[in-house]
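Predict structure. Chain length: 321.
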Amino acid sequence: MIIVTGAAGFIGSCLVSKLNDEGYFDLILVDDFSDPGQNKNFEGKRYSKLVDREDFIEWIRSNHLHIQFIFHLGARTDTTEFDYEVLNRLNLEYTKQVWNACVEFGLPLVYASSAATYGLGEEGYEDDENKLDRLKPLNPYGESKNEFDKWALTQERKPYFWVGLKFFNVYGPNEYHKDRMASVIFHTYRNIKETGKMKLFQSHRPDFKDGEQMRDFVYVKDVTEVLYFFMHHRKDSGIYNLGSGKARTFYDLASATFRSAELQPDITFIPTPEDIREKYQYFTEAKMDKLWSIGYHKPFHTLEEGVDDYVRNYLIPGKYL
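Prediction complete.
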């Protein structure tokens, strides 16, 4: 059996599709399945059982002999969440329980970290484990992810194979339920459909023009390829970046979305809200050398390729992956 937590969510459900495509059907899907909107993400997929996240740790104890691999992708991912108790419970303490169960029963683990741990990038974007103590996340979500990464590295007892993946700006199908936390591509397409236009944040720094703030956008299909790689690699444990390795502007992203919808770009700019202006990231770019160095060589989608596939094959027809 292969476990996928967060299986009703964006990346988790796309991973379930990837595993099905590769012939894996004995899957245990773990999540809070109370949101009907999210549950559409795994409709039509093949799996063995749904397990509520509150029952999962005990379920491992009863079924560990049959588990081959655990992908722990479930988390509270709202970067505007300021309830530390919620983030501590779901992102930190829960992941510690999963980790300890993997140690106890000899199970391999891949878990989701985040590029939010890098903050404004004062220390750069290199997945150097020696720098974790110096990182300055901009929000409680990023703090919760960095705290777990630091905790994992200090443990004397670790799973025989484990990887933490720092996801950068992931986009793609199955994010319909994410509302404000969905990708800018999703919001651009929705705005184009409703108004024919898109509004991006102005720049409030002299070294960046409006719309030229940059992010490392990575297509979810590339993310699931890397997850699948680690399921078979099972060596070189540690913390890795997972982005495209190339920063692109929000203007590039919005323009590509217009083109994929076969429309001329109509992009205007609005002030960045003052409550996030001081903590707004103007640049992120994953350093990917560490992943390449252990033998991963599949090319990633360019921004234009990923956006085109997403818009034409999923957003326009309203399909799920």
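Summary: The domain at 171-217+245-284+301-321 is CATH 3.90.25.10 (UDP-galactose 4-epimerase; domain 1).
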